[in-house]
Amino acid sequence: TFKETYLEFADILQKSQISSFHDATSSAFFTTRPHPSLLLHLKSGMDAAEPSSNSVSASNLHRLASLLNDENYSKLAVETVAAFEAEVMQFPHCFAGMLGSIVMGKIGVQTVVVMGPLETVRQKIKEGVGVGRTVAWGGGEWLRARNELVGSIPKDKEGVMICAEGVCREVPEL
Asked: What whole-number distance in Å separates Cα of residue 20 and Cα of residue 30?
């Protein structure tokens, strides 16, 4: 939809999850908030009928890190995956939800920033953006303020930019 309010809410929600559920000692997310009456304080990495909370968290962190150019989110995503490294090596079939995050951590995620009218963005998505990329519309004020790379692109510029590793470069076609 490219409504910035959704991206802003995702950022707020991620910060809330980090402050409420992240275990800085072992770099993963608990399934419950700490409480003195809990006998066990679990961190799930294995998938069941649904992906584990840590699989979803790692994926969300990678995507938000890419969209917002946020190194802290990227670091947390890699650390979350690393917390389950021994189990993934022994039982990879139990961690299907985490495999995408393992790949994103190894090869990285590029952000495709489309500048210009929203209709241009929608057309570029129909043409395809490739694997390992997130797509953002660079014309919104919140994203331009939150992501320094997107903010550095002239607002009146039209075209497609690929942003990765602290640099945005214009590409003629996707």
From this structure: 9
